[in-house]
Design goal:
By secondary structure, the chain is an alpha/beta fold. It is about 45% helix and about 10% strand. Helix 2 runs parallel beside helix 7.
């Protein structure tokens, strides 16, 4: 059905409504205002975002064990230790202190950890303690340049020369065990409490010194650390007795 309004009449009516104050047009379909909700619908909360999962902690000792296991030579072992980044001591040390002396020697000495002089020179047992060790060895016809091999439990210097922590010892122990296996000594000399703890699981060097034990299928003799003897020179008598015991053992085995 056609509308009875022409264009001009419809326009005139629209303008008249605007003059009366109309501001919006009403749609053709009726709206039930009573059926509308009193409040606007609440916006849905976004789905909760799950927090990112924390990375699994790394078993540093297991990583060290695998790295040490793959080392087929002392050169490989040193490279593996240089590449090992899970020990915090590495960040504060100048360099790795790997070993000194003669690989394949009958006697292998295991100290505790590098000090300031060792950290600077990159060799174990240097400075005053190292000089005393050399004199002790010379007294029983041993020399690091000919028939002694030397390393430490830890290859990096602890801050302020503090004692190594148990977790640091446990972390680096696989490298030490592989070091002994590759060096193939006949006798181990462990100097100081830290060395006894790492290889024998015991502390108390004044009680342990001079008493033969067993570790890594090798005979082990605990001795005072030369640095301790510098602080306690009255203990040199006991150290001399231990050296003579070591000499007798080597002669008997030779």
């Amino acid at each position: 059905m056609e509308s009875g309004l022409d264009h001009h009449t419809a326009r005139a009516l629209l303008e008249w409504q605007i003059e009366l104050g109309a501001t919006e047009a009403i749609g053709d379909a009726p709206v039930d205002r009573y059926a509308l909700p009193d409040k606007a619908a609440k916006a849905k909360k976004p789905a909760a975002v799950e927090p990112a999962k924390k990375p699994e902690p790394v078993d540093a000792a297991a990583v060290a064990k695998q790295a040490a296991k793959t080392a087929g030579s002392l050169v490989d072992l040193r490279a593996a230790m240089e590449a090992f980044d899970l020990c915090d001591l590495k960040r504060g040390a100048r360099q790795l202190v790997f070993a000194d002396g003669t690989p394949g020697a009958r006697v292998m000495i295991i100290g505790e950890a590098p000090g300031r002089d060792e950290d600077r020179e990159g060799k174990p047992f240097v400075g005053r303690a190292g000089q005393l060790l050399d004199r002790m060895l010379a007294a029983i016809d041993l020399d690091r340049r000919e028939n002694v091999y030397i390393t430490n439990v830890l290859p990096w210097r602890p801050p302020q020369n503090r004692d190594p922590k148990p977790e640091e010892i446990g972390m680096m122990k696989p490298f030490l065990e592989r070091h002994v296996a590759l060096a193939k000594p006949e006798v181990l000399v462990v100097m100081g409490n830290i060395s006894c703890q790492a290889l024998l699981g015991k502390r108390g060097i004044t009680r342990l010194r001079g008493k033969w034990d067993q570790a890594l299928n090798l005979p082990v003799i605990p001795m005072f650390h030369p640095a301790y003897l510098l602080r306690q020179p009255q203990m040199k008598r006991q150290a001399w007795a231990d050296l003579l015991d070591l000499q007798a053992r080597l002669r008997g085995a030779g």
